[in-house]
Amino acid sequence: VGRLVLVLGDQLTETLSALAQADKTRDTVVMAEVADEAAYVRHHPKKIALIFAAIRKFAQALEADGWTVAYTQLDDTENAGSIVGELLRRAAQTGASEVLATEPGEWRLIDKLKDAPLKVHLLPDDRFLASHAEFEAWAEGRKALRMEYFYREMRRKTGLLMDGDQPAGGKWNFDHDNRKAAPDDVTVDGPLRFEPDATTREVLDLVQARFGDNFGDLEPFWFATTRAEALQALDHFIANALPRFGDYQDAMLNENEFLYHAILSPYLNIGLLNVTEICKAAADAYAAGHAPINAAEGFIRQIIGWREYVRGIYFLEGPDYTSRNVLGHDRALPWFYWGGETRMHCVAKAVGQTKTQAYAHHIQRLMVTGNFALLAGIDPAQVHEWYLAVYADAFEWVEAPNTIGMSQFADGGVIASKPYVSSGAYINRMSDHCKSCHYSVSAKTGEKACPFNLLYWHFLDRHRDRFSNNPRMGNMYRTWDRMDADKRKTVLAEGDALLARLDAGEVV
Ligand code: FAD
Ligand code: DLZ
């Protein structure tokens, strides 16, 4: 009797370890659209459609390649509703008692597979550069786990942008050059968009019927859903956007949702593209003189640095990571995160494009929606659930460290050496949002005061014990302490009033 080979919705890679260890002539691949996975958070409809369309097409490709695939659609009457339920059902049908599975990217599902009444062989997910053992060895004995040092190891390991044992361009990190304010003219019209084919159309109908009430617009749906399309999207990015990616990485514009970003994370995270080919394409563009070093280095750092590093942290820190809350924040997530009205133009813009595109770029996630949640003291578990639900690229191994750690400082500084908080001035410097805002970014107090201004000082003041000795925050506290005592009082009182309005559900 053959074995079952589990392929999950974010494991759509031909060379997946479970497939590599399986026997095409005897084993049965199990793939399933199940209610449990589609509903552990209220995923954005575009995210569900991306996964369902891509998983259906991947199954067809495996069949064409000679595999036996037992595929379950969401509406199949026999659908057991969960991954383990589907494995048990297929085991009963085929007589199999063993399962080959590549480790899922979430503790929840790993635990379910471990507890299943079947012999499940959990294989390492070798689509990452650093194995768990390698990351643990790097972390061992270090006082602080800073991304930069891990990243240098990954540069040496891959040889990407290396001149012998030295970094290309003479520096490991060109981040300093990557903070230009928003440009007037953006020379690229976002990512490559794809017309839905018949399979995708069927999926869109299903998702509309079953998940049409979830937050987010299903249509227009333009994501790539096959590896061939994802490769075209990669080529499009390298040719058109990469050269200016570095310069404008942190910029935000009212009339441009994508700027020079890649919009490749959804494809990378479900397995349609791999780390090596993406980074090699960027390194080759630099070598050919097509992209400057600050662009190629900045881009490659996000992937072999940040992406690999956050995954290492997720698995190192363990299943309780998502419930950490060292700052004791407990305010409910405001309704405007789900599309309710807000007068803060930057927030409305970030949430608006999250709703239409299931996408916002890093600075929107970190310095607009994340920054506001942290300043306002929102419960990090609710913030985490929001980010996990609303982005097409959101899977817990990558989303949780970014949200709980980098953005909300709820892990007490495992990832970030200081909280990512800013007043409105930062948003004004990096965007054109403030010009069309109800609030005034230059007003520090009063009715028109930008909420980011009020809450910035409110945050620093209420967390003084924890942060005032942080060497990277000394300047902020000195500025606050130099402020006139009456002014400080007014700022705090207005901050309190703003938070009370938020709690009362009033429009802020
Ligand atoms: P680009 O800006 O073009 O970057 C290129 C690639 O680098 C991305 O495709 C991505 O694979 C990788 N990358 C960049 N930054 C990070 C990072 N901090 N961590 C991991 N990979 C990174 N990224 C996800 O893939 N899934 C998530 O669920 C997710 N949640 C986030 C939540 C918060 C609060 C924050 C602050 C960031 C989150 N990120 C997440 C990281 C980052 O915002 C996205 O990877 C990026 O916006 C994806 O868009 P892009 O492909 O256009 O990226
Ligand atoms: C996110 C997701 C969704 C929406 N649906 C499915 C599904 O029906 N079947 C499936 O195999 N995977 C799905 N996924 C992806 C899983 O939730 C993902 O594999 C785990 O969260 C681990 O990363």
Automatic annotation (TrEMBL):
Gene3D superfamilies, per the entry: 1.25.40.80, Deoxyribodipyrimidine photolyase-related, DNA Cyclobutane Dipyrimidine Photolyase, subunit A, domain 3, HUPs
Protein name: Deoxyribodipyrimidine photolyase-related protein
SUPFAM superfamilies on file: Cryptochrome/photolyase FAD-binding domain
A Pfam family per the record: DPRP
Organism: Sulfitobacter litoralis
InterPro entries, sorted: Crypto/Photolyase_FAD-like_sf (IPR036134), PhrB-like (IPR007357), Rossmann-like_a/b/a_fold (IPR014729), UV-DNA_repair_photolyase (IPR052551)
